[in-house]
């Protein structure tokens, strides 16, 4: 693969595509990927366009570019496996849902982890009208060089892990832990992606495993409830009580791995007779 942060773990004929969040890196999905691989899945962690580089690299891309990265990785993976599952964290969850809506024949199941349609968690000081206006600000050139610097707890409840991640994030090594802040223009693209995926949720017919931290500091549980209400496919929910937003690396990551592997395995098992009959 083209970037050292991307990963591929070879396994069986059921594949999982993992998608990181805005300003994040595939590293935040690696532990989950290893766990799913141990459960027998072939796993790919994609790097979204513009990520794992500089702020300028990110600002040179749009949400359509980020989604194009997902679709290209999914197309490559589906050529090597019988079934494709897709799972994402935060903005990555929205991209996973969009793939399932746009390419229903490609996606057998979706993992929706910490879905972020709105940044409305308890640690976020700006919500509602202001975030809604970011696309307008971008069109008008307002705040072009402005950045929302992330604040503690950085989506991580485990204090020791939080210290490690924040040190890497502010060290300037964006490949390890992503950028330390969200540029306004990138957030404007995120708002536009959110609007697009909201409209498409009824087109998601694949089974969805929706996992969210009950005390999410970045995106409230209302985001998960939106998915559960709007998608057309069957839903299984998991609320985690000892994690914050970054549930793929926080205290309950092992539970998330086990439940995700179980969900995808059951979907694959139930799909086999129908695929064989077809």
Sheet with the most strands: spatial strand order: 1-3-2-4-5-8-9
Poorly predicted parts? 274-278
Helix content, binned percent: 40-55%
CATH superfamily: Alpha/Beta hydrolase fold, catalytic domain
Our Rg estimate from Cα atoms comes to 17 Å
| CATH topology call | Rossmann fold
- The top-level CATH class is Alpha Beta
- Shape descriptor reads globular
**Mean pLDDT, rounded to whole units?**
88
Largest sheet: 7 strands, mixed
Q: Strand percentage, roughly?
A: 15-25%
Write down how many β-strands occur, each being a DSSP E stretch of 2 or more residues. Answer: 9
Can you walk me through this structure?
This is Alpha/beta hydrolase. With 278 residues, the protein is α/β, with parallel strands linked by helices. The protein has a single domain (7-272), classed as Alpha/Beta hydrolase fold, catalytic domain (Rossmann fold), CATH 3.40.50. The chain is 44% helix and 16% strand. The chain has eleven helices and nine strands. It has helices at 27-38, 55-59, 63-78, 91-102, 129-132, 134-140, 159-169, 174-177, 184-200, 222-230, 253-277, and strands at 7-9, 14-19, 42-46, 83-89, 109-113, 147-149, 181-183, 208-213, 235-240. The strands form two sheets. Strands 1-3-2-4-5-8-9 form a seven-stranded mixed β-sheet, sandwiched between helices. The chain has a two-stranded antiparallel ribbon with strand order 6-7. Strand 8 (208-213), helix 10 (222-230) and strand 9 form a beta-alpha-beta unit. The two termini are 33 Å apart.
